[in-house]
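Running low. Invent one:
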Amino acid sequence: MKRQVKVGKVLIGGGAPVSVQSMPNVKTSDVRAALPQIQKLEKAGCDIVRLAVRDERDAAAFSDFKKETSVPLVADIHFDYRLAIAAAKAGADKIRINPGNIGDDEKVGILADFLGERNVPIRIGVNGGSLDKKFSGLEMADAMAESAMYHASLLEKFGFKDIVISAKSSSVRDMIAAYEKLNEICDYPLHLGVTEAGTLRRSLVKSSVGIGSLLLKGIGDTIRVSVTGDPTEEAVAANYLLKSLGLRGGVDVVSCPTCGRTEIEVEKLSEAVEKLAAGYDKNLTVAVMGCVVNGIGEGKHADFGVAGGKDKSVIFRNGEKYKVVSNDEILSELEKLFREYDGKQF
């Protein structure tokens, strides 16, 4: 089991639930633009929010964010240890910085001592596309793992071990191999991700294969699904991924792929049911099936669902027929069942 790191109110590693991370895509110093994105990410199920820190104005903005949100915040810094200190003073709960990029041991020591006194952890993040030349003779996965451990060793000199490690690549194969290597050689919690994964559809495929395969092996403690576009899509996708692996609770909406027997608008209805289920934290499976021929049987694993008919459809519970309703009543009947299972109004 990996050692445990505390980021604000969220635990990473040590048997804690796998957490979800994302980043706003606006300037951090633009509080009016960044704060709504932070709040939207939190509402979408994001446990930790990371923000880019380019200068002192970005670092200072953390004090404004901490007044308006309780979600743990990470300051993402490339080179300047002074910005890391400034961000931590302003309320950052974790720092993302690579010690080897800071400059020298004295600066690393200053940062390690400062953050250690305040119990603020560091994430070391190596990227397959920007490795130090000293690792150029190694296979990519080995180079990423060795690079990460090198950065960790610079902190360990000063007794700092409150560390999380990531080893991201745009290559799914390299990313998987690097994390498998790290899992063997260190006990630091691992932050999983496929970097530069592309727009939503492409990212969903790459991240599901890369992150999902590692999680199935018990590797990984926190994740980011990287998407070119709306950051909220990252949080939503990450939560779906965790739910599909049984690593996060909530409603699982299953729906058939449709065929010539389909009698209802399965896609439209499924999307409406997903909206109903948003924020519902009980472990339920709800099925939306396009026909009555196979619908009830194939949806029997669900707690409840619908099997579509031409004018009327069957609502079923635990694989048994519950009632027949007109097609324009399907959604309202499913909503009643949500309320019954939940015991509260949506």
The domain at 5-244 is CATH 3.20.20.20 (TIM Barrel). DSSP finds eleven helices and 15 strands in the chain.
